[in-house]
Amino acid sequence: PTDFSGAIRIGGTAGDWMWKGGQGAPSALVGGTLHPFEFMPELFYGIKFAESGNRLEIVDEVLEELYKAEADHDDVPFYYRFQYGKPIIRVHEAVEDGEDSYHQFGLRRETLDPQQSVFSQRKDPDIYPEITATAKRFGEIQIFREWGFGRSSALRLAQSANLPTDVLLPQLVNLGLVLNDLEHRPVWDRFNKLMTAFLPRYKRLSTKVSAGSVQIFLHEDGLSAPVPATRLSDGTLRFLALLAILLNPESASLICIEEPELGLHPDAVSLLAELLTEASEKTQVIVTTHSDGLVSALTEQAESVLVCDYGDNGTEMRRLEAEKLKFWLEKYRLGEVWRIGKLGGNLW
User: Fold this and answer.
1) Are residues 212 and 147 in the same domain?
2) pTM, two decimal places
3) 223 contacts: CB under 8 Å, gap ≥ 6
């Protein structure tokens, strides 16, 4: 919501995002339904972009209600439509001692940056309440895909004490601060129980703030001194980061994690599945995985699994149906059914 062109630029040029298997001028369309807040109706948001003169250009954008206000209405209520260069926005007007009203206004195209979403260009919660509220929820999406390993990973280094304490940043550079904050929340007991299940010799975790930096230490049974993050295993550090993310799901409108099982001992994957399931009861969670162990741990929630295959028209995703898998699930775990080739998502 703050820098659409910057997000695209991270993955290359606008043209690099386009599917190369079609004909004609390529464009990309992203859309979905959302329910930003309980006091708001369900919405549909979509954005379409293309490459023009080697530059990103948003060619269409829409934020509208999912359903018609009345069955006999011709159209759904909308809050913004770019409409291929003829943008219209819905403006809220508070009326004293009466019902609030809305008015539609056309915007001059030259007043809009063609590389940025409307969310970064119209931000007044009184005039554009739905646009502002939706932008806020989009801004609360958390994406974790840069998992570093080895001696120089961000998780091992002393971290700045001048970073956010409530939400883990995508680069994981404030893990110590977030863990220190969790220690003062009711969820800390749950944290310690999960750590004990993950590492039976675990006693407690501590953080040390010194000279403007934060360091993480693990206290273990049988050791006379705590173990610093520089000496912890990749899997232990990874699990600490996952706890920081998944024990604080209320702070996110959506949590996306790339292959959360990486670096974990296979026996810990069931703990991970338990964490993911718990977090999904409070916010939406999306993960990608190549772990049959994690898939097996979700056997009882088979319909939460989507299988990705590459077809003639690009990547296709298909949600599993538990009823159709009933025969196989009476004999095998879900990950086993995948490995024997009955779900799709296989190389051969």
Assistant:
1) yes
2) 0.91
3) none
